Amino acid sequence: MKKPEAIFLDMDGTLLREDNFVSDETMATIDAVRRAGIPVFVATGRGQGEILTRAPKGFTVDGIISSNGMTGYLGEELLFQHTLDFPLVKEVIQAAGEHNMYYEVFPTTGEGVALKKDQPMLAAEISGEKPADILGSEWRERLEALDGGITWVDTIEDVGYSKFYCFSKDKEKLAKWKMTLEEIHQRYPFSTSSSTQANIEIMVTEKNKATGIKDILTKINVKPEHILVMGDSFNDVPMFEYAGYAVAMKNAPDELKQMADDVTALTNDEDGVSAYLKTHILNNG
């Protein structure tokens, strides 16, 4: 692998440990990579307001692509921002209520929101013990959301929303929800993606992490064949296909590993990103 001209890192399952935080070690390694002259960017499915709160004080990157490519910043400069049609937002929330589907809808800035009247419905979805096939980090974050991690509102105002996050521990229920979204899709354009088997995210059509990376590369004059990306989930597929060099986490599904040029020796919970960057970037000649 040649020295990349830019690096793009996923968050959940990649930068974040299972406690949903970036470690001090990983932050120090990213700082060292940036001092070596390689810009580092975050490319995440998380909303803009969910990112820096998950990192140590002083965590700095060269830019952020959030909500799976819906919003992009180069430093403090807003490069692009895509929002869902507001009639679609209202219809999805109404349908979620009718189907008892857990949802969070994310403004372009700030934390996710949900209707106060839907709080019991959302709470019911994460009652009881965590199922064995649900990631601990995802389950933990839903508990945090209900305990103040999202904003409960009386009405959803038209302030511009970048994505929906929908969750269910019931695979059959999630499959039925996909069918409902397909029916809604006949009236409104949007795309969907899943970072785990327990969620569905709704975004602006034909926008994803790769389109966001493309916009940033155009601005910094770097070709896609000269970048390295790291991720662990299926919402990373577009950037794996776009980048010159893709690295899957050890904890990634086998299907994603097969798409990658390399796989980390350690998992996200073992600071796999830090170890990989030290070995292949900082200590590689």
Automatic annotation (TrEMBL):
Supply the source organism for this entry. Answer: Halolactibacillus alkaliphilus
GO molecular function annotations of the record: magnesium ion binding; phosphatase activity
User: Which named protein is this?
Assistant: Haloacid dehalogenase
Which Pfam families would you find in this protein's record? Hydrolase_3
Record InterPro entries: Cof, HAD-like_sf, HAD-SF_hydro_IIB, HAD_sf
Superkingdom is: Bacteria
One GO cellular component this record assigns the protein to is: cytosol
